[in-house]
Amino acid sequence: MASIRAIILHRQDNVATVIEDGKSGDDVAPRSFDGQVLVAPVRLQEDIAFGHKVALFHINRGDAIVKYGEVIGQATTSIEPGAHVHVHNVEGRRLQEARDVPFDHTTKLAPPSR
Amino acid sequence: MTERFPEKEWAGYVRPDGRVGIRNWCAIVGVDGLVAPLVQRLSSQLAQTVPIYTPFGRGQVGEDETISLRAFSGLASNPNIGSALVLGADSPSAETLAHILAMRGIPVATFSLQEAVEDTIVAAHEGMNRASDLIVRMTRMTRERVGMQCLTIGIECGHSDASSGLVANPVVGRWAEQLVSAGGTAIVGETYEWLGGEHVLARRAQNPEVADRIVQAVTASLARMRQNGRQWDNPGLENQNGGLTTIEEKALGAIAKSGYGPISGLLEYGEAPSQSGLFLMDTPFFTPESLTGMAAAGAQIIIMTTGAGNSFCQSVAPTIKVTANRKTAVGIRNQIDVDLSPVLEEPYDFEAGIARLGQCLLSVATGQLTRGEVIGESSMVVSRFMASV
């Protein structure tokens, strides 16, 4: 069982980006680029490739996915810590909004519950 | 041999209007599609030339005609152009563009199929005579030492993956900030790719009018997608394979290449900035079109980040390819100018990455060839904004 590196970009983020190919069972201790430990380590629930995202907390269906300290989408199902976060369990909000109503760039989703 | 200069200096060809070329090329320009083969024939046979041509040219009307003329005159008077041979089916259309170039101080000659009594072989012969004279005279010029304020760069990302947003784009953005604070200019295009990050760009606008125009440009690009019944196929499959999940995530990573400083204005397609600073340009998102818009605005160099690799290089503005993905850096070694993948190794040394990019850029500005120039991979496409009559 290996330990692989992952980057967390902002203290509000609930996902980290793995920067080595990870296997199910690998441990991940995400760090910020300046070496800070902002979150507890997680164990990968499945294989996650370089550049893909891992959930750092339990995320409920409908919760915001936060990366760069910004909302990048919404969970379409509940997501366990250590799970792969990608198109199978996340949907962008911005294009959904664009389909229905004009975008108001001052609105933001609430940050995720911890 | 490229001379070594102190940091933040480079050497280029100083033009009559004060702008500075990183290359000294003779533009072989075709003002309409009838002379496109002639342009390609001549530029393939003559040294120090770059072809600038269109498959269209007649029956273009209104806004489309205006933007085309602006883009072609901008490309043919880019600082990298030291002289120009303008070719057309008829003399008046060639003269119109040649006059604009001459007013900008560019040594120019013209020839037309009309003057060759429609014989393209005769036109090639006479075109070669006229261009040869221009090229010999042009190459008497030598490089002079100049500063960062003489650089205008276009910034692009293509086939992005997570390494683009984590490392490559932030490194480019922070280098661009240094350029702008030294009095230089940076241009970022691809309006549709701002979607999901436009609120961040709008916050950085120099004034509320610029902020509104940024948001309006994004809204207009979305509306055009929608009017045409298109699905929102973004992020693309290659982005998804690289780990990008939503358009918000892709946009937030993409806009990092503009740095974090104030945005001075929003340019129209091919419009030259009226002052130095960081500008957005309202362009189509397809790389050949957006990069050509930046070159038409006077960018001497393009910096293009990539995750999976993207082969396009602009022909008038040499294109520096940057990646932070180690597989790409190794896999297409001959097409990557700056390998930033070491920045993704501990201790994540961004300063070293910025220095490596800056060093490469100033070397290329001073004459070092890009990988794209070495393998002869380059092209140009001026966008169309209306159908021809």
Provide a compact summary of the structure:
By secondary structure, chain A is mainly beta.
Kindly, what is the distance between the CA atoms of the first and last residues of chain A, rounded to a whole number of angstroms?
28 Å
Radius of gyration of chain B, taken over Cα atoms and rounded to an integer in Å:
21 Å
Q: Which term fits the overall shape of chain B?
A: globular
The rounded distance between the terminal residues' Cα atoms of chain B is 51 Å
The residue ranges of chain B in which pLDDT falls below 50 over 5 or more consecutive positions are none
Instruction: Name the largest protein-protein interface in this structure.
Output: A-B, 35 and 36 residues
The helix fraction of chain B, in percent, is 25-40%
Report the average pLDDT across residues of chain B: 95
Write the H/E string of chain B, N to C.
EEEHEHEHEHEEHEHHHHEEHEEHEHH
Would you tell me the structural class of the helices and strands of chain B? alpha/beta
What is this structure's SSE topology?
The complex is a heterodimer of chains A (114) and B (389).
Chain A (H helix, E strand, L loop, with lengths): L2 E2 L1 E2 L7 E4 L8 E2 L13 E2 L9 E3 L8 E4 L2 E6 L8 E2 L4 E2 L2 H7 L14
Parallel strand pairs in A: 1-4
Antiparallel strand pairs in A: 2-3, 3-6, 4-5, 6-9, 7-8, 8-10
Chain B lengths: L8 E6 L5 E2 L3 E6 L5 H10 L3 E4 L9 H15 L4 E8 L2 H13 L4 E5 L7 H19 L5 E4 L4 E7 L3 H20 L3 E4 L9 H6 L4 H20 L9 H5 L5 H8 L10 E3 L9 E5 L5 H10 L4 E6 L12 E5 L2 H6 L6 E2 L10 H17 L4 H5 L14
Parallel strand pairs in B: 3-4, 3-5, 5-6, 8-9, 8-12, 9-11, 10-11, 12-13, 13-14
Antiparallel strand pairs in B: 1-2, 1-7
Helix pairs in contact in B: 2-10, 5-9, 5-12
